[in-house]
Amino acid sequence: MQLQLIRNAMLRLNYGGRQFIIDPALAAKHSRPSYIGVSPNPLVDLPMPAHDVVSDIEMAIISHLHSDHFDSEAEALLPKTLPIFCQPADAARLREKGFAAVTPVEDSITWAGLSLSRTPGEHGAGAWAEQLGPVSGFVFRAENEPTVYWAGDTIWCEVVKRVIEETQPDIIITHSSGAILGDSGPIVMDATQTIAVCQAAAQATVIATHLESLDHGMVSRAELREAAEAAGIQPNQLLIPADGEILRF
């Protein structure tokens, strides 16, 4: 398995011999509005040209349709015949955008030797979770590959804990910026919640993403590492890749 963090939640994976992308959002630096009045978004450029990000991919997984996870630039660059897997709530809108091979995943599906199981999440707490709508993560399995749980835009909650207990993943990918909207509190995991994932899954390697790319993120990479070290989490259990960095397992 090879994983490359592109920016924010966007990943390129070589998994089970297949190349695919997760949550493509390709907007140029400062081309989108601020979320909380701090700075236009994204905060940083892509680490490579947008065309290179999507070159040679065989499919895409889109967790939900917030603009930091799928944007107009990605819509324009992705081939309209590319297989796309998504949550059921988003299938009609993706088809309306002209994509001809959209597959909503209700529970689990097999594609080209890969097992994709959709998992729920909570995009914040209380009324904010309802307002931000449904979000999904996925568990990936393939022969001779680690089991990967990509949690998606969720806080640490009972459903995430249950997925970890039931699937016993080798790798867990978290969104760990502690992003906020107004008085929402974190709408994705913050440092404390990411540490809770590490503690709940001591057998797993946790990869923290969704950092230092949007103006509503409250946790930096350095702050996450400092908090993890203070909690006794070893650097080889919690990986915090830079944009463009490639990890191999």
Structural description of this entry:
This protein has 249 residues and is α/β, with parallel strands linked by helices. The chain has a single domain (2-248), classed as Metallo-beta-lactamase, Chain A. The protein is 21% helix and 26% strand. The chain is built from 7 helices and 14 strands. The chain has a 7-stranded mixed beta sheet. It has a 7-stranded mixed beta sheet with strand order 7-8-9-10-11-12-13, covered by helices on one side. Helix 1 (50-54) links the parallel strand 3 and strand 4 (59-62). The longest helix is centred in the middle third of the chain and has 10 residues, at 158-167. The chain is globular, with a radius of gyration of 17 Å.
Briefly summarize what is shown.
The protein has 249 residues and is an alpha/beta fold. The protein has helices at residues 50-54, 72-77, 91-96, 127-132, 158-167, 191-200, 221-230, and strands at 2-7, 10-15, 18-22, 59-62, 84-86, 102-104, 108-111, 114-120, 136-141, 148-152, 171-175, 205-209, 238-239, 246-248.
